[in-house]
Amino acid sequence: MSIWWSLHLRRDAASVPLARRLLLGTMETAGVDPDISYDLSVALSEACANAVEHGGDAACGGTSEAYRVTAYLDGEKCRIEVADAGPGFPAVAAAHARPAARPASSDAEHGRGLCLIQELADHVHFGNKPGRGGAVVSFDKILKWRKNAPLVAV
């Protein structure tokens, strides 16, 4: 079984729950275990929130209006990628494929997203788009299935 979708979303806070609901609906329809679906939906929400907040085109004064979300459910794995048109990660961080994601305090309202993504996913990559710039956050997780799931990989 293979399912994939891609969204081109406005950099608006309302786009975050839209992406999350689409992912949850896809996972529920496919028969993915709800705990796995929840973890991936939280990680996606964090990546989208970062794209909304930081994903503006620095060359155009931070006015880029869109970002892209792509999700692949392929076999026993789900991979999600969120790409924006912002300034990207600092060169040192991108070269090591991991920005300095320092845990924020538990009551902090900002600065926890990248750490949450790392905790919730099995594999995470932070990088920059070649050429035009922008950040790319991709992460994947091994799927578990509900009993009698309709679209289980064979």
Short note summarizing the structure:
This protein is α+β, with helices and mostly antiparallel strands and about 150 residues long.
Characterization of the model:
The protein is α+β, with helices and mostly antiparallel strands and 154 residues long. The chain is 32% helix and 25% strand. The chain has helices at 15-30, 34-54, 91-95, 113-120, and strands at residues 2-10, 66-74, 77-83, 123-128, 135-142. The protein has a five-stranded antiparallel β-sheet with strand order 1-2-3-5-4. A hairpin with a 6-residue loop joins β4 and β5. α1 packs antiparallel against α2.
Annotation keywords:
single chain; 154 residues; alpha+beta; five-stranded antiparallel beta sheet
Task: Give the topology.
Blueprint: E1 2-10, H1 15-30, H2 34-54, E2 66-74, E3 77-83, H3 91-95, H4 113-120, E4 123-128, E5 135-142
Antiparallel strand pairs: 1-2, 2-3, 3-5, 4-5
Helix pairs in contact: 1-2, 2-4
Termini gap = 7 Å
Q: Could you describe the largest sheet, including whether it forms a barrel?
A: 5 strands, antiparallel
Count every beta strand, where a strand is a DSSP E run of 2 or more residues: 5
| Backbone CA Rg | 16 Å
| Mean pLDDT across residues | 85
List the uncertain runs.
Answer: 92-98
Quaternary structure annotation = single chain
Order of helices and strands: EHHEEHHEE
Write down the overall geometry.
elongated
Structure class: alpha+beta
Number of helices: 4
Helix content: 25-40%
What spatial order of strands do you see in the largest sheet? Answer: 1-2-3-5-4
Q: State which percent range the strand residues make up.
A: 25-35%
